[in-house]
Every structure is written in structure tokens, then in C-alpha cells.
Amino acid sequence: MRPEVALPVLLPLLSGALSLLFWRSRPMQRFIAVAGNIALLLVSLWLFVAVWSDGYITMQMGNWPAPFGITLIADMLSAVMILMTGIIGLAMGIYSLATTGRGHEKFGYYPLMHLLLAGVAGAFLTGDIFNLYVWFEVMLVASFALLILGGERAQMEGAIKYVTLNLLASVIFLTAVGLLYGTVGTLNMADIALRLDEAEHSGMVEVLAVMFMVSFGIKAAAFPLFFWLPASYHTPPVAVSALFAGLLTKVGVYSLFRVFTLMFDQTMGYLQDIMLWGAVFTMVTGVLGAAAQYEFRRILSFHIVSQIGYMILGLALYTPLAIAGGVFAIVHNIVVKTNLFLISGITHRLQGTYQLKKMGGLYRERPWLAVAFFISAFSLAGIPPLSGFFAKFVLVRAGLEAEAYVATGIALAVGLMTLYSMVKIWNEVFWKDLPENNHVPSPQASAGDDGRLIKPSLWMMYLPVVVLAAMSLLIGVFAEPIMQVMILIGDQLMNPSGYIEAVMGTSASAEAALLEPFEGQAEPISEDAEGNP
Amino acid sequence: MEPLMALAIGLLYATAIFMMLRRSIVKLVIGLLLLSNGANLLIFTTAGMTRGAPPLIPEGMLQPLGDVADPLPQAVVLTAIVIAFGVLAFAVVLIRRAYEIVKADDLDKMKDTDT
């Protein structure tokens, strides 16, 4: 019994339920938002330390043996992703206190935030493919409601595209799960991996692999399936944007990593080229889309797409080093991208707009905010010694070793163009003088996202920004120990036998897995019948 | 039975995609509804269809007599139906609110957030 595997899912569910109980009490909900997320961060740290010292940690739900029940499993990749979820969750819990208008709080902002975190954590920890679908839906439904909180026209229009394309992806995922069950007769991912290795190749495996690739590709916003992201991510309240930018697309990327290293590793020879060029086009279209924009959050949204390309590039190269680089890119991007969105929220509070043309003069006015932006933006572009540099360095080195020279060259060029967009924001927002016709709201009149007055509490907005900027710096400075974790992840993902053994138990239970499902299920039931005649 | 089901599922998917490609947001939601129904039937069918054999174990025995229906896809379909129901309820409310705000049910009039 290892409770730390289940707690990252249970805690946010509990916080969400508690927030719902205190529906009318705003102070109580705010307290739970911070306390619940502190607890989540502590539990995720616990899980990380436990996985670091003990290796794989599994938990069989309801004590059903492996292929029959639902398995929760944490390997190093899951543990790192859960740790990032905890960090971002706490940052958002604090930041939301200052930015969420009373209207949004009244309509359940905090319970939805907790449910979203529960869905994300569940998706990272489950070892069952249908259970993964269920967590995806938990996450999606919470994100739908958060996206339209406030009900402005732009939010509705963005939400229709977001909802439609994500539901389409879910149905493709569900169809693939159904066909997969029809093919191998099990839903446990480790068991599926075993049986797909034994099954003869009839072409069905390739079809299934492509279906999973398309559905997770939509959720990860990979080329050419990313159009819902820049159409919707700049519309909701800024805390919601930041939360989505940090975590949601990364769940899609995580699923791609998990499915293609564990279950469909034998189809990679066939899909590698498609994935590689998908990654390259994702990088290029994202960064080109950003170059044309002059709205702070839209530029950042397009850069999410562009950065997803780097992560998928790591998977497409398919060597342990490349996987390590891809996961490094995920970790770095979660920190940096969330922070950039948080900074856009502060500049919006200070200057009342997201339009770059109407902003300016913040370098003189708020030098420390400028420093935080500088660190995050240049980290995103991959300037040493910040976190983005090492992610890109590892990926480029893996690309050169795999002799994918074109993709590697484009990845470097995209880094330069990222720098162009970031310098554009720097020039417009921080460096140039404030345009004279712009009306800057005074701090006393600052309003929440719904336009109602809230107390100016800028320190709650600054605290997460400073901490995340420091994290980006520290990831760069202490790249060596972090790289060790990433190398371990790369090894674990490229050798799934450890994962399979951890789920299925020793060879004795692997034999039991080959039995018909009904015989396995019959035993616990009949024992129960004997115990209570 | 399986070929008939396959035909019905294919028809549901095709109709759903056709509806989703229309410009009206109402038809979009109808398309989503049909699509999730098609997926549910598909799960039900791919696992193999067995008639009149519930997966029950007679008292005092360790396994059922003869072939029985596989209970797992039925559990999966039940879960999927509930999820689809919740999500569609949300989608219906969403298109209603969108219609109230945009004053049109035409997707081509909802392009402000693009580009």
C-alpha cells in the first residue's frame, strides 16, 4: 500500500469537494485554494522523492490483480509531471486570489480549478488506457467551464472551437480504445504492451497507433491540428490562460510519450518520419504565427504551439537522450510559459490592455518585473544559462547523433525567431515610452476580470512570478542533477520492461495474465461467497 | 449481427462528420451527439456480441458455464455514455449562450478570435 501514488489525485478532488461545500463563503474557498494546493505540492514532492529512491511505485485499485483492475503507477516521468502540477497549482492558487473577480469566484472558479488539477494528476498517474480517457474528460469538462467563466463574446467563440475539437479528439481516442480492446482484449497499458508484442501484425496495430497519434496530437496542439489553441487561449481570465498554458497541452504530450514508448514502440519505425515532420512544422507554424501578432497573450499562445514541436521532436527522434531532452523541454516550458502568462496578467493590471501598441514604459516603472520577464522570455528562446538553453542543447545534440540534420537546423532557427517575438514584446511593453494617448488605470481603480473592483493586492501576483522566474534560473544553473533525472526518464521510457514488470508483478502473475479474464475474476468472487455464505 | 452493427456504426460516424461540417452550431452539437453514440456502439460491438448469456457464475463454482458476454465493454460503454451525456449537456448550454451573445447560429459569424 503506497498512498503517495493515489494522494495527488485524491487531494485536489477533496479540495474541490470542500470548496463546493463552502459555495457561499468566499474567504473559505480562497483559503482552501491555497491550503489545498500547498498540500498537493507537498504530496507531489513526497511522490517524487519516493520514486527517486524506490523506482516504480504501483497501486492496484480495489486490490484487483494487475490486468483486471485499474492500476495507478508512478514512474519517473509521472513523478516529474506531478511535481510540476503541484508547483503550477500552488502558483495559480496564490495568483488567482489577486486576479479572480468576485463574479468568477461566485460561479465556482476555485472548485473548477481543483477539479482540473485532479484530472491532470489522474491522467499522469493512471496505468489503464480507458481510465486515461476518463481523466482526460474530467480535465476537459473543468476546462470548458473555466474557459467560459465570465461569458464574454470572445470567450464563447473561442469555447465553441475548443469544445468541438477537443470532443472530436476524445471520440477518436474512445474509438481507438474500443478497437484496441477488440484486438487485444485488455485495457491495462502494460498488459496491452505485452500482448501487442505477441500479436501478429495485421495492419490493425498501425491503424490504432495513428488514431492515438491524431487524438493526442489534437490535445497537444501539434501541426496541423492546433487551430483551436490560438483561437481560445487568450480569451479567458488570465489565471485560467496561465493554468491552461502550463498544464493542458502537456497532458496530450505526456500521453504521446507514454503510448508510443510503452504500447506502440514497434510501430515507431513506420511513424517516426510523420512525427518528425509534424514536430518540425509545429515549431515553424507556431513561431511564424506569433510573429504576425500584436496582442500579448496571442503571441504567447502561438509560442505554446511552437514549443510543443520541440517536445514532440524529442519523441520523434526516439533515442534515450532525445526523450530526456523532450521531457526537459516539457518541464522548462511548464515553468516559463506559465510565468509569461502571469506577467501578461500583471502588465494588464498595470496598463489596462493586452495590445502591445498601447503599452510601454514598464522598464522604468517596474524594473524587477522587467527582470522577471527578461529571464522567462530569454529562457523560452534558449539563451544560456537559462532553463531553455539546456532543453534545446540536449535536443540538438540528440538530433545530431540521430543524423536528423534538417530537423535540428530548423529547431535552432526557430529558437532565433522565438527570440524575435520575445524582443518585440520587450521593446513594446518595457522599453519604449508609454504612448501618450493611453489611459493607465490608477491602482485604486484596478478591477477584476469581470470589471468589478477588487483590492489592489499586487504582491500576490508578484510572488508566483518571482518564484517561477527563479525556478527557470535555477533549472539552468543546476542543470546537471536535473539532467540526471531526465536521463533516468529516457532510460525508463526506452526500456518499458521495468514498467511492465512493476504493473504486472513478477513472472508468476504474468502467467496469470495470459489466462482468460473470467477465470481470474472468478477467484475473488468465489472466495467472498465462501466467506459469507 | 456484427455486419449490421458495423454498417450502423459507419452510418452514424458519417452522418456525424457531415453534420459537424455544417455551419449551424445546432447541427454541430447534433453531430457531436451522433459521434459519441457511434463510438459507444463501436466499443460494444468490437468486443464481440453474445446473446442471452449474462456473465454470472453459478453458486459453488469457480467459473461460468460455457461462453458468456464480456462484462468489461459494457462497463466501459456505461461510463462513456455518462461522460458523453455530461459533456453534451454542457455543449447545449454553450451554444445557447453563444446564440444569445452573438445573435446568430452561423459559425462563419464567430471568427473574431481567429487569426
UniProtKB/TrEMBL annotation, chain A:
Keyword Membrane: yes
Record's keyword terms, sorted: Cell membrane, Membrane, Transmembrane, Transmembrane helix
Entry's Gene Ontology cellular component terms: plasma membrane
UniProt feature coiled coil, ranges: none
Membrane topology category: Multi-pass membrane protein
Transmembrane segments: 6-24, 31-52, 72-95, 107-126, 132-150, 162-184, 204-228, 240-262, 274-296, 308-331, 368-390, 402-423, 459-479
PANTHER family membership: NA(+)_H(+) ANTIPORTER SUBUNIT D1 (PTHR42703:SF1), NADH DEHYDROGENASE (PTHR42703)
Family: Belongs to the CPA3 antiporters (TC 2.A.63) subunit D family.
Name listed for the protein in its UniProt record: MrpD
Native organism: Vreelandella zhaodongensis (Halomonas zhaodongensis)
TrEMBL record, chain B:
Keyword Magnesium included in the entry's annotation: no
Positions of transmembrane segments: 6-21, 28-52, 72-95
Protein location: Cell membrane
Membrane topology listed for this record: Multi-pass membrane protein
Superkingdom as given in the UniProt entry: Bacteria
GO cellular component, one term: plasma membrane
Main location per the UniProt record: membrane
UniProt keyword terms in alphabetical order: Cell membrane, Membrane, Transmembrane, Transmembrane helix
The keyword Mitochondrion is annotated on this UniProt entry: no
InterPro entries, per database record: CPA3_antiporter_subunitC, NUOK/Mnh_C1-like
Family from the record: Belongs to the CPA3 antiporters (TC 2.A.63) subunit C family.
PANTHER family: ANTIPORTER SUBUNIT MNHC2-RELATED
Name of the molecule in the record: Na+/H+ antiporter subunit C
